[in-house]
């Protein structure tokens, strides 16, 4: 199977490329503009530096390579930035995705796996969200992904040869247990990475945004999923489609909520270091609690999470951070 991986030099994409390469049965082409990705993180297959906003180049590539499947990661992902610069997110995330879907359809791609987000759910009123929960994004990032989801679903409904998997990620964290890959995102805002950097003295302090939420300790609660488990969900989604499975949407999480303060305590535990934590006001666009109901993905796909303990997630992130420059 010949696969196009967009954004494959980024955090999650590079882990998926590694897993595809280790499987030994896929012909992989990675496309990335390297605005946030790292070329050295692409460990397998062919690499093409390309901006998906260059529609003509995208069309030529898909015409030339004749892909069987597309796994689409490339996107802007910083929620506060999406609020201050929404057009960047709608153009980069939604418009570029629409064109990629258009070109995929034109050139006979039969399987499309889309990297979506739990941000499409907004501020849920229930303890855990299912794939059928209302989608009411709180920020342009979440909306840009939800719009892309709809474009993909509508296109597939009108073209029976195109099947899709939409994977809604909850909070992705951790690093490759082999220590070959981790989170290289510049100026990262992800809690676990920032906490690990602070524990290692790479940052002076860690800020906690909001301590007055309606949660057990007042800080935001999230469902953290290890990047390797998330990567394996993509492989299983691809196999599902290749074996004749129908198009679908899946939550990718562990159905376990962990607060910001609990994450900080875990990082302090695995690093055996204390560090400065500054309590600040809430950020606009952050829900109090966002936890997955993962019943559907566990029942439908042959997905078996292996790294679901928060200490394991934090430990692999810390080990990567210790070794990266």
Structure description:
It contains 10 helices and 14 strands. The strands form 4 sheets. It has a 7-stranded parallel sheet with strand order 3-2-1-4-5-6-11, sandwiched between helices. A 3-stranded mixed sheet has the order 12-9-14. Strands 7-10 form a two-stranded parallel sheet. Helix 2 packs parallel to helix 4. With 325 residues, it is α/β, with parallel strands linked by helices. The longest helix has 21 residues, at 86-106. It folds into 2 domains: 2-172 and 224-252, NAD(P)-binding Rossmann-like Domain (Rossmann fold, 3-Layer(aba) Sandwich); 175-222 and 255-323, UDP-galactose 4-epimerase, domain 1. The chain has helices spanning 11-23, 55-65, 79-84, 86-106, 140-158, 191-199, 227-242, 260-271, 295-300, 310-323, and strands spanning 2-6, 27-32, 46-49, 69-72, 111-117, 163-169, 171-173, 206-209, 221-222, 224-226, 248-252, 258-259, 277-280, 289-290.
How many domains make up the coordinates?
2
- Spell out the helices and strands N to C: EHEEHEHHEHEEHEEEHEEHEEHH
**Cross-sheet strand order for the largest sheet:** 3-2-1-4-5-6-11
- Strand fraction equals 15-25%
Task: Output the structural class.
Answer: alpha/beta
Poorly predicted runs: none
CATH superfamily of the largest domain: NAD(P)-binding Rossmann-like Domain
The largest β sheet comes out as: 7 strands, parallel
CATH class of the largest domain: Alpha Beta
End-to-end C-alpha gap: 35 Å
Could you tell me the radius of gyration in angstroms?
A: 19 Å
